Amino acid sequence: MSTQADTALRLLIVDDRVEDAEAIVSGLRNAGVAVRPSRPESDEELSRIAGNQAIDLVLAARNATSIPFPQVMQRVADTGRDLPVIALVDTLDEAGYVESILAGARTVALRHAPQQLLASVREAWSDRDARRSLRRLESRVRETERRCDALIDSSRDPIAYIHEGMHIRANGAYLEMFGYEQFEDIEGISLLDMVAPQHVEGFKTLLKSLAKGEPPPPRHEIEARDIDGNAFPAAMEFTTAQYEGEPCLQVVFRRRELIDPDLALELEELRHRDQVTGLLNRPAFLRALEDAVDEAAQADRQFGFLMIEPDHHHQLLGDIGLDHADDLLAAAAERLRGLIGDGATAARYAGHTLAVLLPGADYHATAALADRIRDGFSAQLFEIGARSSVVSVSIGGVQIGEKIANVGQVLARATRALESASGTGGNRSEIFDPGATDRVEEERIQAWVARLRGALDNDGFLLHYQPVINLQGDTAAVYEILLRLDGGDELIAPGAFLSIAEDNGMLGEIDRYVVGRAIAAIGQRLREHRPTTLLVKVSQASLDDEGLAEFIGAQLAAHQVPGEYLVLQLPESKVFTHLKAAQAFAANIGRLDCRFALEQFGVGLDSFQLLTHLQPHLLKIDRSFTDDLAGNAENQERIAEIARRARQIGIRTIAEFVQDATSMSILFAADIDYVQGNFLAAAGPGMNYDFE
Known about the structure:
This protein is of the alpha/beta class.
């Protein structure tokens, strides 16, 4: 999958029926894939889209007649781009499969097997991203090699590259040290020729051990010999390297009289240490982590990686005072050192986050260390300044092995695990193990389910309100409600838990909770003579909740609220795939004078087709259209078209996620009715915006 969770899949679908294509798009969206689809209706349109637009993936029906499959493959090949094609079939047979693959399709997917289709799309998208990333990395490597070459040339340190004992590269300082004028004079000469005779045998032994893959010594002292045979004391430093794709050794020669070993060691140690905690600093630790990940990928070794944070850090600082923040961190680091033992490496990763790297550890050893750290912190009383306090910690970890041998993945997984451990109450540890994903995922889900149940039963959710501002002169107060989970020190956005709530049948309860709180808030505003309209997101579960309309009616009556002040929103993709239920839902709330809105509008294959079956009061344009609106002429045209067509049929429009003043001008010129976004006013716990 794409490495960025909010990246939309730009999908080109070649299929005869728009309904079949829309069903595929809806299925992908329901599975959590953000999709920006296109569907050409002719060969000319296919050529234009494939040649001019950014496309990530093509889904082409094998039995399509409007644009036959061989024609699709030819048009894709004509683009000369890395554009993977998935052949879409109704039934799978050997001849059709072989023919599709030979034609250039990456794989074959069954139209009526949504899970297999989803897996095929994810795999093809991920492979395409991996190939693209590889090309970018290769380009960066080439650029880095050019820069390194320039740095080596300009370095005052004598540096040479040695392959099988022979010189293949040397900089000017190296040539000058040994009395050579140009590299051609030294090319092909053995490194042994630079060593005084009495050191040759020992140096041969060292080179043989290095050739066997044994680690080089940090420093090797010898007597060197220049071109005239003059000897001088020198020290050599070795680093494994590559030159023009070949493995080799980088050798740095230094005259020994220029080196103060004790001072050099002291400076090197200080350079790698954090001054507050005495642990490794972030750059040094990241180098160790990179080495561990490389070793896991190449030598099938395992490492445990943990990120540790004190729980309720802001509250702790409030108790002990900001002037003791470093004391708290130093005490935590000291405690961590005592708990991890000699085999592990500890570091200050960032701010108040500590990290541990445990070599040679399987999942059980990593989890055991995490438990030992967690228990060790909660069992100790920390003396900080004049205060004494118990400091519990949350721990997120990753089991580094061949399946997750990527530094970015390791850090991202550990960060998510740490946030989850902290967000579900703290004093917990979560370890992601690629070899036991199901078990770890189940533990995480159960913790979240318990947390959500507690929030529903004990009023642990919070509502924030973001102003929705009219561009056409109407000053009535309108807010959208945004749900948050009270996480103690921080608020947790719904993206962290709604999918878990959906999988565990809790979305309907959450919808009722939010709607009930919204109606109560509207009633309070009316009693204060400040009438306010609230927009509330509801889920697909509400379409199946036969008692929801009755619940809304009872709440409106209890709080003496006219239904016109409540607007219920559903995503376009959910409505399209549950149209009859959405029609019934809109009719039921319409009897209470409540209004209905479509959000995430405009990203379907034919979004306005919905409006022939359903008449919402508001259309909220998908936020992808306002991203970098000022620099995207295509999105500007699309927004103007949506606003024009909506106005023709009497539907008002909302543009969200507005980011700058230029976007505001564009939206005003497009006749958009309402706008919202942090640029205008951020969401908050109160309704204090001045609409006048």
